[in-house]
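PROTEIN SPECIFICATION:
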Amino acid sequence: MTRWLQSGRRRDLCALLYEAEELRGQSLKTRLEAHYDTHIDSKSFYAALRSLREKGFVEKRTEGIHEAYALTDAGEERLEAHFEWLAEKLQK
């Protein structure tokens, strides 16, 4: 597994984008905060997204004054591979 999936926050961001296909940054942050049931510092949230973009797993586009994020094909493939690995570990 590559380092990008070693962070639970990055994995969870990818999972939310996989489900929604595309989300504005604030909507993505709100969904993640609801999942964690806690406030997430904006700086660290956007740093995680930037890291995923730099690795080519998430893409960003400007939508008016908002930024929208989506998984790339590479991001989807890595998330699916991680899910398969996890599913194997959880089978009894």
Q: What stands out?
A: Helices lie at 8-20, 25-36, 42-54, 73-90. The domain at 3-90 is CATH 1.10.10.10 (Arc Repressor Mutant, subunit A).
